[in-house]
Amino acid sequence: MQVADVIGSMLGSDLPIRVLGYDGSKAGPDTAETALRIVSPRALARLATAPGTLGLARAYVTGELEVEGDIYALLDGISDVTLNSIPRAEQLRLVRKLAPIALRHRVSPPDLEYRPPGRLHSKKRDSKAIAHHYDVSNTFYEWVLGPSMAYTCAVYPTPDATLEQAQSEKFELVSQKLALKPGMRLLDVGCGWGAMVMHAAAEHGVRALGVTLSRNQAEWAQKEIERRGLGHLAEVRHLDYRDTPAAQFDAVSSIGLTEHLGRAALPSYFRFLASRLRPGGRLLNHCITQSRTYKGRTDPFIDRYVFPDGQLHAVGHLISVMNDNGFEIRHEENLREHYAMTLRDWGRNLDEHWTEAVADVGEGRARVWRLYMAACRLGFERDNIQLHQVLGEVVGDRGASGFPLRGW
């Protein structure tokens, strides 16, 4: 059995990449700039136990499979597998062919895989799932995200804008849609490292409260708020959004939180946010969405390594649930191309700080982030996933609205 031929047949005909086997075998064109190198028979054993994207990811994370050249270019070249996995019949054929190797080389899931314990989307389990992803290392995130420390889709005003310019543009777009003005009260749920909170306070004179389930994020954000002299306006708390004080806010921003909520939790989530808003108050919900309406499972690599318990929803479903639970929908916008560009820049940052990142969080975890950012970039570019902002308002008495006839 030629290793490269087996992998090459799984990845499809007319490969634009090279496949190099540990047995010296080759597949694909010799002129290809990127290559997939099978370092160990254990990589094949992983494909036998999990044929498709999960097996490939496990082999890459453990170093049993290497990428020569740009990982995004390689994933782009095998996009039929990376975006859609391989057909069931082909999976079974691959398992049968690799079964003898799997028997000789017993493998178990890498330690970095995580399945949080407890009842799905209970406060305790949600806290553990968030800590798994976000409480990695603030220093690591500083290298990847850059000075803004914003871990959500940026908005690029021009194709050549920097990541920092694009993140500032995103927060200003959210501020405009929420019509933030001095003295208003903003609640930012799932606030991350507090970038939206600090933007609202510094640029619009808003009294802003951010809440996050990540203790690392909250501690970093509060120190940064004090460093910038914004303590009189801004605050970030380590708190579940469901424990937010019952103050009546003028606006709520939810940037990158609903991806962590299951479908069943959406109605109560939007009802809760509506209960925290005064009549005429606005909600801007910004999140990754499914590009089609179907109840598919989260990619197993993303679920086990990156965002445990995460679930994406189609924008139509989100709009319907918002509409049925306290909000009149006033505007919707798809920014998926912007997220592809954001991930491109995050990936570039990680590569520029690769040695430091490996020293800080370990090579396996750094590989996880490199793989997931490249794969997600491809997903946004190919319309496999999208990024939507949906703007809603809590309507006042007799249908009163604070919206102008045109504009936000």
From TrEMBL:
Domain of life: Bacteria
CDD domains on file: AdoMet_MTases (cd02440)
Alphabetical keyword list: Lipid metabolism, Methyltransferase, S-adenosyl-L-methionine, Transferase
GO molecular function, one term: methyltransferase activity
Positions of transmembrane segments: none
GO biological process: methylation
Top EC class, one word: transferase
Entry-linked SUPFAM superfamilies: S-adenosyl-L-methionine-dependent methyltransferases (SSF53335)
Protein name listed in UniProt: Class I SAM-dependent methyltransferase
Lineage: Bacteria, Bacillati, Actinomycetota, Actinomycetes, Pseudonocardiales
